[in-house]
Amino acid sequence: MAKVKTTFFCQNCGSQYAKWQGQCTACKEWNTIVEEVIQKPEKSDWKISSSNSSQKRASKPLTINAIDASEDARLDTIDKEFNRVLGGGVVPGSLILLGGEPGIGKSTLLLQIALKLQYKTLYVSGEESQKQIKMRAERIQANNDTCYILTETKTQNIFKQIEDLKPDIVVIDSIQTLHSDYIESSSGSISQIKECTTELIKFAKETATPVILIGHITKDGNIAGPKILEHMVDTVLQFEGDRNHVFRILRANKNRFGSTNEIGIYEMQGSGLREVSNPSEILISKKDEELSGNAVAATLEGLRPLMIEVQALVSTAVYGTPQRSATGFNAKRLNMLLAVLEKRAGFRLGTKDVFLNITGGITVDDPAIDLAVVAAILSSNEDEALQKDYCFAAEVGLSGEIRPVQRVEQRILEAEKLGFSTIFVSKYNTISLKNTGIKIQLISKIEDLVSFIT
Ligand code: TYD
Ligand code: MG
User: Whose CA is nearest to atom 22 of ligand 1?
Assistant: First the structure.
């Protein structure tokens, strides 16, 4: 039997060491180095096209104009949201990593896409049996004759099947369940993940077949496995959302072939994920009566305008220290806005409990939501409803000034489209829109807002 070879890997950054040490010299983390059994083969595995492909394809330098990029037509995934996030479809030969919390819907999303594709697709699952996948497919009511399901975890066997089937696109659920014969450590270990990804990259680049990998994420939200996994692939997508709510957001954290500003929005239904092409209409509850403490913000998620409802509740504090709680909004920012209201506009909120909630279970980082937060708090404090067709898009500064926000025109147009009558924005925004059906109310100080809405 061959001698068992072991190496030490840092679980955090993937650096390799000949012997154990307490601290990783590369990333400076302590106690992250573990021993893993490896057995490097003499030859690497992916060699379908030819073992001497490197000689055949020895590349020559070319001027940028001489390079032909036309054959890189992207594969249309039919799913509009997925296409948008990728920058217009899947690039042949690219490796896409989709990460997300357990149960968020990664397998559902990719199975759904695989079953919609017009191309020959191989869906490899190391997590579920073929029967379970069939049950899921029945649930999402999708069906076609071009998607093949394989339950396998050994890369060598997967490549054998690929050689027979010659698929146009490969989906792997998930990278953590794969293992290669050439490495002896268990599936999910750093060395296995690295080796399997390397084999898949080689396969993808040599055959121009795109591969989509599902990756688990760790407790602190990073994709499990070495950080270099994210460097190795072309695109890193993140599927996120609150599991108790129906909305799911797909973001690109890295994209070699497109912008990372685009997002895709889905709604999880009993029968799979539905693409949400007009999210604003769902996020704003259409109530007839006007309620105090509600305000609508015109925010941007990536490049997409999104109208979001903010709810605030201000009540007299029963305990000595007033409570402040924010869902979907940064609690520190809430405290700051309360301090601004207290100091600049004279509201005595220091003795009040303040609760803030962004409806729909989404989290907003866009500073343009500030003004709506302030308006909702004032409205709840006075117990007087804001006019239903008002909306807000501006940042609030420490001295109570209303600051301009980016892409304000896009927000105004979205608000107009949804039938709002007035939008409050900063006086310092340059707006060249003319003849809008919506009134653009320019304000410069928090006092201006107070005089308008109370
Ligand atoms: P899944 O795709 O298995 O999550 P992941 O692969 O990210 O771990 O999604 C599982 C969740 O989605 C599960 O809690 C049930 C829910 N679900 C629906 O609500 N509707 C559906 O049609 C399907 C297939 C799943
Ligand atoms: Mg899954």
Answer: 272
